[in-house]
Amino acid sequence: MDWKNLPGGGNIEDRRGGGGLPGGGLAVGGGIGGLILALIAYFFGVDPSIVTGGVQQPPVQTQSQTQTGQSDETYQFVDRIVASTDRTWTQVFQQSNRQYTKPTLVLFDQYVQSACGQASSATGPFYCPLDSKVYLDTSFFATMDRRLGGGGDFAYSYVIAHEVGHHVQNELGIAEQVERKQRAARTEAEQNSYGVRLELQADCFAGVWGNSVKGTDAANLTQDDIREAINTAAAIGDDTLQRQSQGQVMPDSFTHGSSQQRMNWFMKGFQTGNPNQCDTFSLPYNQL
Questions:
Q1: 59, 58, 74, 67: which is closest to 16 by C-alpha?
Q2: How many other C-beta atoms can be found within 10 angstroms of the C-beta atom of residue 66?
Q3: Number of H helices, E strands in the chain
Q4: Residue 160 contacts by C-beta under 8 Å, 6 or more apart in sequence?
Q5: How far is residue 138's CA from residue 287's CA, in Å, rounded to a whole number?
Q6: pLDDT tens per residue across span 216-260
Q7: β-pair type (126-128, 104-107)
Q8: Which three-class secondary structure state does DSSP give residue 104?
Q9: DSSP letters spanning 154-193
Q10: What digits encode the pLDDT tens for the residues 176-203?
């Protein structure tokens, strides 16, 4: 993937360098943002108490701690990928006579303060619907290479596009509807099933973005690039992660979908380029 040929101009907030050691009570805000943080932590083998309480929080990063890293390659990469998602979803929304509000991506290291609460790099990338920001510690990319068996520029881009997909869901009111359904769910398995549908749709939305990039000479996507994204989708399936972390698979506890489901829905978006094909909510759960 020739990402350097893509135009920049994404909304990037660089908080790297704020760092610091923990020093107070950690609390993550309620709602779907806090839920996503806890689930990401759980399925990456991290104690959920790290993001839901029971550890100490770092000093709050202030604007004075924000560094400008516009010259480094990581910043340039993220900037171009975010800008490309902006163009994709602005065009999609315009086709429906809607206005797309571009999200901000926050780069951080170690710890970060979001409107959904404090988080650490151990939580992995996440989207906070309360401030419409994607949070990313790019050390996660190294984790992908070492622990998840997925890596490469297009795979990293897929991760960003997936989180932006959650922003699209927030813009469309889907995330709020899912949160209401989760609160009304009678069982934990039912509650989890709504999370699976939400995550698979975000995978499909990431595929829609990939399709739009595929159609540009600038990106120059190859079959190897596509394979990177598919391998990453497979590596972060609930069944794969559960098998690695606890030696057994418990489908009722799935929150993001199986490896096969995640690959299928990413490819559905990638092959069609049509977000209308990403309706994971009308199908029976066993047909996802």
A1: 67
A2: 17
A3: 10, 6
A4: 78, 81, 82, 85, 105, 125, 134, 136
A5: 34
A6: 766 678 888 888 888 777 777 766 777 777 787 776 666 788 888
A7: unpaired
A8: strand
A9: HHHHHHHHHHHHHHHHHHHTHHHHHHHHHHH-SSHHHHHH
A10: 999 999 899 899 888 888 999 999 999 9
